Amino acid sequence: MAGKRPSTVEEYIAAAPADGQAALRKLHGILKQAAPEATVAIKWGNPFFVEPRFVYAFSAHKAHLSFAPGPEAMAHFADELKSQRTTRHFLQVPYTAALPADLIRRMAEYCVATVAARTDDGFWAKPDA
């Protein structure tokens, strides 16, 4: 797909490394099930789930996928994430590792509930002051 940016999640996954496509499809299915009313679109080059605010996103990389539930969810699940590869904003899963599907499902459901409880109109959650 040289020169053409993916415009759908299906195209995005098809353009990802072959080793990661099955895990990316599974991740997409989990996230879609957790937020069935969300719009899924390619924003900033990655699949985003929006209701109409940011719920979560994911991305494909050379050797791993990243799930981006936002820093609030990462902090909420910090104890369970100790055995996982993470950054402040991302859960990173190597394509050679099993996808922690149950953890991702619970994190996704937490994000959906958190966004539903928000009263502001901003796209991004405001960090705590």
Largest sheet at a glance?
6 strands, antiparallel
Spatial ordering of strands, largest sheet = 1-2-3-4-6-5
Q: What's the number of helices?
A: 5
Into which percent range does the helicity of residues fall? Answer: 25-40%
> Helix and strand string, N-terminal first?
HHEEEEHHEEH
User: What share of the residues does DSSP label as strand, in percent?
Assistant: 15-25%
Question: Roughly how many Å apart are the termini?
Answer: 43 Å
Q: In terms of quaternary structure, what is this?
A: single chain
Secondary structural class: alpha+beta
C-alpha Rg, in Å? 14 Å
Give an overview in words:
This protein is an alpha+beta fold and 129 residues long. The chain has one domain: Aspartate Aminotransferase, domain 1. It has five helices and six strands; from the N terminus they run H-H-E-E-E-E-H-H-E-E-H. It has helices spanning 9-15, 21-34, 71-76, 78-81, 101-117, and strands spanning 39-43, 46-50, 54-60, 64-68, 85-86, 91-94. Strands 1-2-3-4-6-5 form a six-stranded antiparallel β-sheet. Strand 1 (39-43) and strand 2 (46-50) form a beta hairpin. Helix 1 runs antiparallel to helix 2. The termini are far apart.
